[in-house]
Description:
The chain has four helices and two strands. By secondary structure, the chain is mainly α. A two-stranded antiparallel sheet has the order 1-2.
Amino acid sequence: MVRRRLTIKRLDPWSVLKFGALANLVLFIVLMLIAALVWFVVDRLQLVDQACEIAVDVGFQQCAVDGGTVLRVAALLSGMIAVISTAVLVFASFLHNLIADLTGGLVIGVVEDAPARRAAPPAAPRAESATPVTSADPPDPGTPTASPETATRRQEDLFGER
């Protein structure tokens, strides 16, 4: 296991807007499907008719509930909630950015189950030459070449393996 500390210092408001709008659109669709399903069940069980009969018995003059009107009101309310919550998310991202500038950001502890990967050894700086060296060119006889034992010793020194 590897434990890491990650710091969220900045949230991009544009990406928050895109994510929030899409998430709220999906929630809007889900809420509309749930409202239609609930209305279908209520209508099939004739609960509205029974409630209207009770209302007329109590003293109301008339009672009527239209399913289309109920779904339009649900769509209007769900749409307003989606727009307002998207705006609140974007405002919250701006607020997070301001507070993160003062406090240094939000620190999150992450635990990885995978073993830690080792960083590749730094590459040796290449000498700039006037002519590029290709694989077809023979090595310069004055350049020392490293033996496999030397390369293994360097790797052991870098990674602490022996």
